[in-house]
């Protein structure tokens, strides 16, 4: 797409660098896990581009080859020896379904535990916790249900489940025993949403423990 300038690309890469550094400091990228993306430019006639973390990189360090640009099909838009994240197709689908501006995916102990605990139910129910307001849900004693989809080694097999379970009012979706994808209109909002989800998942887990020990 000709509307992507070098300045826009560099701005997206810098945004990803700052977010990557912040999340790495929280140990949200064990091994080389997780992936981050930011849309660059507008979505025009179903076509768009986004910057995404390259596959197999240690996200606790910075190198000149940490990111690349891909199109709406997850194909690199420039000649490069880098591979996009293995889960790029999930990012593609979320952008198509939501029109969001950024998507962040991390693996943490708490998001993995709650996705397995509630996996058969298909959602993580959360009610009456203050951080639900981070999703612009302001009702008293609000209840949300965070969707959970099955995880497969074959990434394209996950995409239809994401399409089916994605809830436009809940800016996140869990892969069972894998991790959370959170998104927002921009990187600031996506970061806020991800931080809220992580707080809520830890809350749910610890509340389950409290209930079990009080029996």
UniProtKB/TrEMBL annotation:
Keyword field contains Lyase: yes
Molecular function via GO: methylthioribulose 1-phosphate dehydratase activity; zinc ion binding
Binding site for Zn(2+): 105, 107
Annotated Class II aldolase/adducin N-terminal domain residues: 14-205
Pfam families assigned to the protein according to its UniProt record, in alphabetical order: Aldolase_II
Cofactor details (free text): Binds 1 zinc ion per subunit.
NCBIfam families: salvage_mtnB
Record bears the keyword Glycoprotein: no
Cofactors named for this entry: Zn(2+)
Catalytic activity of the protein: 5-(methylsulfanyl)-D-ribulose 1-phosphate = 5-methylsulfanyl-2,3-dioxopentyl phosphate + H2O
Record keywords: Amino-acid biosynthesis, Lyase, Metal-binding, Methionine biosynthesis, Zinc
One cellular component (GO) term of this entry: cytoplasm
Gene3D superfamilies: Class II aldolase/adducin N-terminal domain
Name this protein carries in UniProt: Methylthioribulose-1-phosphate dehydratase
Family to which the UniProt record says this protein belongs: Belongs to the aldolase class II family. MtnB subfamily.
